Amino acid sequence: MRCLYGTWVYWMLQCALFIPIRCREFPHYVFQSLMKGYNKDEWPSYQEGPGQPTRIYVEVYIVSISSIDAGSMDFVVDFYLTQHWKDPRMRFSENMSKVLELHHLRQIKKLWLPDPYIINSKSAYFHEVTLPNRFARITPDGNVTYNSRLTAKLSCQMQLKLYPMDTQECEIYLESYGYSTEILYLHWHWDDSKAFSITEHLELPQFFMPTPKKLECVDTYSMGFFSCLKVKLKFQRQVSYHLIQTYLPTFLIVSISWVSFWLSVEAVPARISLGITTLLTMTTLISGAKQGLPAVSYIKALDVWMGTCTFFVFSTLLEYVVVSKTSRKKIPGFAPHRYSSMANSHPISDSRTSIAPHTTVKFDNCFIPTMNGPGKSSSRNHLKPGRMSGSEYETDRESPQEAYLPRPPRSTQLSAAQQAKRIDVIARILFPSLFGAFNFVYWTYYMLQSWEESGT
To answer: What is the pTM of this model?
Structure first.
């Protein structure tokens, strides 16, 4: 009895001590059994012969998109890359385990893995905090899932002719690096909703992103044909930010420059300082608006707006130069007339003139008889017979220059000051009208181009 009791205690202790350990080590035991005779240099369809490529089904889940930079023409994307394939060598019995999870990088590296790379990547890295963000999952029928998290800075060739009303099309461009289409073929996941998805909380500050497009492609190189996948992302720039930061301030600056038309021509310091201040402010706004943009050889929509606003502000200064010059111009019609000089050359000391009868008065080679006969006055003179004083007639004097010489015609010309003021009045209407017409053409043209480019 003691012997049987001792044997029973012994086996109970063995179960208590070793069975939990074996249970904890069971996944590792399954993986070790699968690795026996496994060659990771052979792709899964290697044993099936040529013409039977291994098909990789890819999922891309976007976590975030940031730093869409027009200056360096790139953007940063953080995403999960999940790949599915079938490897007959990884089959095992369902009695052993339903799913085999591999979370340690040293285990994952023992598997054959696809080799996709991002063609348009400037830089990329795997996340390593707190542990390497990679895992593999193997099902009993040999289906392998490999998931990793990456952050990549991707190049994007941007066309900025419509900036800031542009729509940029960028790509996430995946391709097999070393395996041609005879060995490996990339496909999007069979479930279209999982093939490419974006987190619901993704918001881009200056852009609206329509539904992306997925493509499967094959690139041709001298080494052969290589399977590739593309995701076309459209970034439609929201113009509201630039309306507040760029368009509205410049519009106000141009409008303020027109205040000069309501100032007096003699207000030289006020008009000059206003014109120079608005011009310098426009220069500062142009420098701020172009900050972060690449030096391109073509004209952008923003350049057209800024250049036109600068032209209007500068034209305000030129208008004042014309007004100032006109106000100081001497107009011949308003020069001192020769008749006034003639009047000054014959001063008469009294308002009344005594002229003896039967005499002739001479004014600048013009002989005027005072009387044709006794008691008669000449029909051509304006000497009115009046009170007699001895032998002389006492008459009211009229200037001989006014009486017998033709009066100068009344001038219809404006004075210099009036002409200068009229230029200001015309400018008050002309400048806003031209700027309003420019706004209509500018916004109509570029908004139509923007809608056409975005496909809306």
So the answer is: 0.70
